[in-house]
Design goal:
- The chain has six helices and ten strands, in the order αβααββββαββαββαβ.
- The chain starts with 8 loop residues before the first helix and ends in a 27-residue tail after the last strand.
- The chain has about 250 residues and is α+β, with helices and mostly antiparallel strands.
- The strands form two sheets. It has a five-stranded antiparallel β-sheet with strand order 1-2-3-4-5. Strands 8-9-7-6-10 form a five-stranded mixed β-sheet, with helices on one face.
- It is rod-shaped, with a radius of gyration of 35 Å.
- About 35% of the residues lie in helices and about 20% in strands.
- α1 crosses α4.
- β3 and β4 form a beta hairpin.
Amino acid sequence: MHDPTPDTGLGSFAAVLAGELPGAWTSTYHPDRGGNNDHDALTDHVWDMNDVADTLAKHTVDHCAVLTRDDGSRLFVADRLGHGEGYLIAAMAPTDAPAEAFRGVREPDGIAVDADPFSAAEDIHYDLLPRYDKALAQVRTNAARLTTPPAAEPEHVVMTWSGDALVVDKPDRDDIVQALTDYGFALDAETDVFVLSGDDSAHQAASVRAAGHRLSELGVGVVLRNPPARPALGTTAVAPPSPPVASPHRGR
């Protein structure tokens, strides 16, 4: 159905401007419908902390236009309220990014342009759009970082010295078990651990290196640990001090 609302200078300006900007842009004109409009919802997304924001805070927007690029980027177009002829062009913030993604990102403040859409397109292309695209990229990167789950702790095998032997708790993964047994670790059925004998220290060291290399190929790290230290014979562990006993008396 044909929109009976007559076009204005701003609507015509925005339509021509959309065709002059680099890339594929469309223009949507938002007229004043006697107070029944969505202008506040649009101005809330103006991404500006400079002259455009100041103007919008001091003046009511009767009509405006929104230019939308094929990637979803948007530009807000409004009259230079209180400043004579020409228009204000401002970037609009993406609506699909969480508020935290904007932290530390400088606003791509808008610009004032003359009523000539051809010269305005050049000003936007060389001034506003580079700053807008940079800010958008930063927000997208931050948003992706916020939604990326933290990396899982890398799996590792702990080899603990027990005398001259190395002991490994029985792993849950069959491929890790295979890597250990291939290089000399034997399962002790009584303790359910894998043991690498230290009868031949040179052979033992070579087996550890080979097993470690194979485990690394499986994405598994190796940690060598000494057994927990034991208190020397004839000594007694020092008991922690007893907590103070509270007095039964209560103050008022």
